[in-house]
């Protein structure tokens, strides 16, 4: 190899007269010993040269030289190497910091998103888009508006009034009446990753159905939704209240309504995720209904014949939802009794607070024809943690005013100042699927979800000090950024 002891020895010996000392390959013990000493020293010097050459560029620098480079560019304490951080990781951090946008509002946002994974809230008192106008109630933009959440169930209309799922044990088997089969809870069967009822038919001939119970239903209209995932059967018949209405469902491809009968309307079926289909319908009950309002039959083929010999393995996964309304809202889980929720509440300052945080990437939007924004206006995007959202400036008649973001006061006596609400990383609050003493998330013949963990996985991460330092590193000179850190 070029520059090693052997290479330099051969080069030195090759420079001597061959008639006196022989060729490079001829052994001459005394001369070879002297040249080997020189070659060892020169090989070390050559390796030192190569090492020094690496340290002249950030892309190739190693060891403590990377720390010196960071200190030269950012100061001795601004970008220190973390405990156990590799050269490659530290080099990338230096390069990102060198090229990072600075001295702008967007720089603070990008820095905090990179550090914590969560978007901060920034309010500049002299920026009209961050503040409200005197005499203007921003909540008026959302009064009467339709609020939507787009997630694994599709674009769901949310309700500010209480609503209940009337079907008991909507995703477990405690009240199931599987006449011709067996049922058991199955994890990760639902479209959102949660559990659903798993129905498996027997080898006998008969109904092959699964029924779900509820209290006695009064006369009226009921909005019904069913999440169903085929498991060896693609054809189903759904019967309501002793077959006052029925739907034949063909899930052999993208999902289709093969037939419907009785007092059922507004029927639709779409494929959502995880091989699951979402069926929606409105059922009209003329008189007091049965305590077993829904029955799902698996059928063997497109004739929808309910009597056949099963294979003891095929069936389906289901989740049930029925409420007293004409349009079904988002799915609500129930156990031993009907469960009531209010999807969201609207504050006097125009902020929407949802009953539970939307899942990550779930978009929150609003539409209001009366206020001029007939196209969806963004309220925010779910991160699995936040449940409070505000309207941005709409495209309707309020847009030219320049005001529209509610909840902040404007001031002309706070120049060069801003208020930042930064959020700690979600990962610092715990680790999923870690079992405690006496708790097991697995079992015999079942894949375990349990994981080992140590406090090192939740401590030593991003500290409040890191967040303060990150803001200070990119904020414009001469400005004051008041910072609040929240979970």
Describe the structure.
With 487 residues, the protein is of the alpha+beta class. Among the domains are: 5-54; 132-153 and 342-407, no CATH class; 162-339, Jelly Rolls. The chain contains seven helices and 25 strands. The chain has helices at residues 5-14, 18-21, 29-54, 63-74, 87-99, 105-116, 464-474, and strands at 121-123, 146-151, 154-157, 163-165, 181-186, 196-201, 205-206, 209-212, 220-231, 235-240, 245-250, 256-262, 264-271, 277-285, 294-299, 308-309, 315-323, 339-341, 344-346, 351-354, 363-368, 373-381, 388-390, 417-423, 480-486. The strands form seven sheets. A six-stranded antiparallel beta sheet has the order 5-6-17-9-14-13, with no helix packed on it. A five-stranded antiparallel beta sheet has the order 8-15-10-11-12, with no helix packed on it. The radius of gyration is 34 Å and the shape is flat. The model is unreliable at 394-406 and 455-460 (pLDDT under 50).
């Amino acid at each position: 190899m070029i520059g090693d002891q052997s290479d330099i020895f051969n080069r030195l010996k090759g420079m001597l007269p061959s008639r006196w000392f022989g060729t490079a390959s001829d052994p001459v013990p005394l001369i070879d010993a002297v040249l080997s000493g020189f070659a060892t020293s020169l090989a070390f010097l050559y390796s030192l040269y190569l090492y020094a050459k690496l340290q002249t560029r950030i892309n190739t620098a190693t060891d403590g030289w990377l720390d010196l480079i960071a200190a030269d560019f950012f100061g001795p304490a601004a970008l220190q190497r973390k405990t156990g951080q590799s050269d490659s990781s530290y080099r990338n951090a230096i390069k990102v910091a060198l090229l990072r946008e600075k001295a702008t509002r967007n720089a603070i946002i990008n820095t905090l998103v990179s550090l914590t994974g969560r978007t901060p809230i920034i309010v500049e008192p002299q920026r009209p888009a961050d503040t409200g106008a005197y005499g203007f109630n921003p909540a008026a933009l959302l009064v009467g508006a339709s609020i939507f959440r787009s997630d694994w169930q599709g674009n769901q209309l949310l309700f500010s009034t209480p609503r209940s799922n009337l079907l008991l044990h909507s995703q477990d088997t405690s009240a199931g009446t599987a006449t011709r089969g067996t049922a058991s809870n199955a994890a990760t069967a639902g479209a959102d990753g949660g559990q659903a009822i798993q129905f498996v038919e027997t080898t006998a001939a008969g109904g092959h159905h699964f029924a779900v119970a509820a209290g006695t239903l009064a006369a009226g209209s009921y909005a019904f939704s069913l999440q169903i995932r085929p498991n060896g059967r693609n054809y189903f018949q759904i019967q309501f209240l002793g077959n006052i209405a029925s739907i034949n469902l063909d899930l052999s491809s993208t999902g289709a309504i093969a037939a419907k009968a009785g007092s059922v309307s507004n029927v639709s079926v779409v494929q959502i995720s995880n091989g699951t289909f979402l069926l929606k319908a409105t059922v009209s009950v003329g008189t007091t209904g049965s305590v077993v309002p829904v029955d799902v039959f698996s059928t063997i083929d497109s004739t929808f014949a309910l009597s056949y010999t099963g294979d003891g393995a095929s069936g389906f996964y289901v989740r049930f939802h029925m409420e007293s309304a004409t349009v079904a809202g988002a799915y609500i889980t129930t156990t031993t009794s009907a469960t009531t929720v209010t999807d969201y509440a609207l504050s006097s300052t125009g902020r929407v607070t949802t009953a539970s945080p939307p899942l990550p990437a779930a978009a929150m939007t609003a539409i209001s024809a009366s206020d001029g924004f007939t196209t969806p206006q963004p309220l925010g995007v779910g991160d699995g943690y936040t449940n409070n959202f505000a309207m941005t400036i709409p495209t309707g008649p309020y847009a030219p005013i320049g005001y529209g973001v509610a909840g902040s006061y404007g001031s002309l006596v706070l120049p060069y100042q801003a208020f930042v609400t930064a959020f700690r990383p979600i990962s610092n609050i715990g680790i999923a699927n870690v079992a405690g003493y006496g708790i097991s998330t697995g079992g015999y013949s079942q894949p375990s979800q349990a994981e080992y963990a140590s406090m090192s996985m939740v401590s030593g991460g991003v500290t409040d000090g890191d967040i303060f330092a990150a803001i200070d590193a990119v904020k414009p000179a001469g400005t004051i950024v008041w910072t609040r850190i929240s979970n």
